[in-house]
Design brief:
single chain; alpha+beta; 6 strands; disordered N terminus; Lipoprotein
Length: 169
């Protein structure tokens, strides 16, 4: 029994030390998941109102998939809302039906590659270790942990006339 406890303690120590290595490993998921769609999940709400989310994106490369996941996170905060319990249950910032289409002149450049959406989302530290990957023959699907600045988005949309000032969602 004592040997088992020592072995378990040693194994935990080895795993912990490997976890602190500078090279992080992306956690693979079944390859069939590369062709699936996943909902954005709320992991928490910070004191400043920003939301920590696990968002998913598909792409032909790792970089494309991760950028798409960031876009999806911002899109979901803006137009879909984030489902969850307690603080995580958030309505969309832009609750207007068909707002994406109605304000397409604003949102098309906003969500373009390198667009303004990038100011409001950042990938959490932990990089590779916080990523999930499902890779098929021609597509990769990555789940990444990001933080979306919900209050910053709201202020920007008010400033740009998409939301009325003082709107709280």
């Amino acid at each position: 029994m004592k040997k088992t406890a020592i072995l378990v303690t040693a194994a935990i120590g080895i795993v912990a030390s490997l976890g602190s290595c500078s090279k992080k490993i992306t956690t693979p998921v079944a390859s069939s998941a590369a062709y699936s769609s996943f909902e954005t999940q709320c992991l928490g709400v910070e004191h400043d109102g920003s939301q920590t989310l696990r968002a998913w994106g598909k792409g032909t490369s790792k970089g494309d998939a991760i950028e798409q996941a960031k876009k999806n996170a911002v899109y979901d905060v803006l137009f879909k809302g984030i489902k969850g319990t307690g603080e995580c249950n958030q309505t969309p910032l832009v609750p207007e039906v068909n707002a994406r289409e109605r304000y397409s002149e604003y949102f098309n450049p906003f969500f373009s590659d390198g667009g303004e959406y990038r100011k409001f989302v950042k990938e959490e530290k932990g990089g590779e270790a916080s990523r999930l990957q499902a890779k098929g023959k021609s597509i990769s699907n990555y789940g990444v942990i990001v933080t979306v600045d919900r209050e910053g988005l709201r202020r920007q949309l008010e400033k740009d006339g998409v939301l009325k000032e003082g709107t709280r969602h």
